[in-house]
Design a protein that fits this description.
This protein is of the alpha+beta class. The protein contains five helices and ten strands. A hairpin with a 2-residue loop joins strand 9 and strand 10. The longest helix has 27 residues.
């Protein structure tokens, strides 16, 4: 195919994706909310309830992040840092990891993160939300990346959406830029640090 033919075919596929997104938005708008408990988590200033994370907002976006053990989750969080103030204008936003608060503070400081963080260590929050798995050998807990959106409705906490995070999702632009190259990621994986910035 010529360049022009390829770009025309890709534009057609993007129109198909846009149509699917419209269908997904309609489904999301008709969601039956899922009641959730008011979990106690560890905030940077002490224990904090899920309900307290809303601040003065009706909506709360919680990122289920695997923490300091995962360079990919770190790359996603680096991206959230850039859009945090835009999101926080519309909804409360917080990143939750299994790391202790002291570890979170040190790691976030080293990366210049500005968004709020909580630790779900010692709680059933991530497990109950579906962002926990057992390792294949059954010997370890594996926290899984994702995002949940909660609302406060008539004094009740409900979850109105969630999805896993991973390569080629809608929440990390790095993969989409790499997809524009004929070879795609070509085996590239995120790292904590790079030789060039």
């Amino acid at each position: 195919m010529t360049y022009a033919q390829t770009m025309s075919a890709l534009k057609a596929k993007r129109r198909e994706i846009a149509a699917i997104r419209n269908e997904m938005a309609a489904l999301q708008g008709a969601v039956q909310p899922e009641p959730v408990r008011d979990y106690q988590l560890s905030g940077w200033s002490g224990p904090v309830r899920l309900s307290e994370l809303f601040g003065d907002k009706r909506d709360l976006i919680v990122i289920h992040n695997m923490g300091t053990s995962c360079p990919a989750c770190t790359m996603w969080a680096d991206g959230f840092n850039g859009v945090y103030h835009h999101l926080a204008d519309r909804a409360a936003f917080v990143v939750s990891t299994p790391d202790p608060v002291t570890t979170q503070k040190q790691f976030a400081g080293s990366r210049g993160w500005r968004f709020p963080m909580v630790s779900h260590d010692g709680s059933d929050f991530a497990r109950d939300m579906g962002y926990w798995r057992k390792s294949e050998d059954g010997a370890r807990d594996l926290w899984w990346p994702g995002v949940s959106v909660f609302q406060q409705r008539e004094g009740q906490l409900v979850r109105v959406s969630d999805t896993e995070l991973g390569p080629h999702d809608d929440f990390c632009p790095v993969w989409h830029f790499l997809d524009l190259m004929p070879e795609g990621a070509d085996g590239w994986q995120p790292k904590f640090r790079y030789a060039v910035a």
